[in-house]
Amino acid sequence: MQNLLAQLLQLYILCIIGRIILSWFPITPGTVLATIFSYLYRITEPVLGPVRRVMPSAGAFDLSPIVVILALEIIGGAIVRSIG
């Protein structure tokens, strides 16, 4: 069980990182890349959006992915330690 949870958390972190990387490039609507970005946006925005609204502005930089990844790593480590 702990292995599955750890893998799911890592997969979610990879989705956040994928969204970050794809946001750096212009994406043409209707392409495979646009479909992938849309999917990543839909699964990560429910977590990133509320964090972004609570955090103070950092200018043009969106620091919410860093906060969420750090929180997921801490929570995941605590869960794995408590189960194992």
Topology:
Elements: H1 2-22, H2 32-54, H3 64-83
Helix pairs in contact: 1-2, 1-3, 2-3
Summarize the structure in words.
The protein has 3 helices and no strands. By secondary structure, it is mainly α. It has one domain. Helix 1 crosses helix 2, helix 1 runs antiparallel to helix 3 and helix 2 crosses helix 3.
Summarize the structure.
Helices cover 76% and strands 0% of the residues. The protein has 84 residues and is mainly α. It has one domain.
Element pattern in H and E: HHH
Structural class per helix/strand content? mainly alpha
What's the end-to-end separation, in Å?
10 Å
What's the alpha carbon Rg, rounded to whole Å? 15 Å
Please give the share of residues in helix: over 70%
Averaged pLDDT, please? 90
Which stretches are low in confidence, meaning pLDDT under 50 for 5 or more residues running? none
Number of helices: 3
The major sheet is characterized as:
none
Keywords:
84 residues; mainly alpha; flat
